[in-house]
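Re: that backbone. Tokens:
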């Protein structure tokens, strides 16, 4: 099912989720900034720099960067991350704050960029034990998009043959063994974050990605 919100509404959600994350980041210690996130080998500070890069890179710059990296996404991401990371966490946060209301993106797939901030915010919050969570409406839009197609992550493939039902909202899709739980946990599971499997129940959970 496609996202039901319009582009301006989705961008308003993106801006709200960025601001909420920036507020959380303002309270972090140096040790927390250096902590490992849920996102591969990246630290919390790396993830923030990645979010700044995503909000600063339009289609032309993205294509040039990918071409310069010989279309190796890992090299492309590493170069952009290094460019947008500050000399210290304070500068990295300042750079992120400067793009909180940006509508720049590498493509017009606005639900994907909402997913970018929703997922990466939890990549930071979950290992640090921070209690804030994205809004239900934002999570629902991301869940619908992730279930409908593979984009930055193989989210559609991850839940192929499963029935997903949110326990806290309207999201439901698919047919097969049931997976149920909070919408955010379903989103994170579709993004390949196995840390959220503990929040899900049903016979289909065993079929979800484990890393």
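Recovered sequence:
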């Amino acid at each position: 099912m496609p996202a039901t919100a319009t582009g301006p509404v989705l961008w308003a959600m993106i801006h709200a989720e960025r601001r909420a994350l920036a507020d959380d980041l303002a309270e972090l210690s140096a040790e927390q900034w250096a902590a490992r996130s849920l996102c591969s080998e990246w630290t919390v500070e790396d993830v923030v720099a990645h979010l700044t890069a995503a909000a600063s890179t339009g289609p032309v710059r993205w294509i040039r960067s990918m071409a310069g990296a010989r279309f190796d996404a890992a090299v492309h991401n590493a170069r952009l991350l290094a460019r947008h990371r500050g000399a210290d966490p304070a500068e990295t946060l300042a750079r992120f704050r400067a793009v909180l209301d940006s509508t720049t993106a590498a493509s017009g797939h606005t639900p994907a960029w909402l997913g970018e901030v929703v997922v990466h915010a939890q990549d930071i919050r979950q290992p640090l034990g921070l209690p804030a969570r994205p809004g239900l409406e934002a999570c629902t839009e991301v869940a619908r998009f992730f279930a409908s197609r593979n984009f930055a992550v193989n989210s559609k493939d991850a839940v192929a043959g499963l029935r997903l039902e949110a326990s806290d909202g309207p999201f439901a899709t698919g047919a097969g063994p049931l997976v149920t739980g909070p919408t955010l946990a379903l989103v994170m599971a579709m993004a390949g974050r196995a840390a959220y499997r503990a929040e899900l129940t049903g016979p289909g959970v065993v079929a979800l990605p484990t890393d």
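Strands lie at 163-166, 172-173, 178-181. The longest strand covers residues 163-166.
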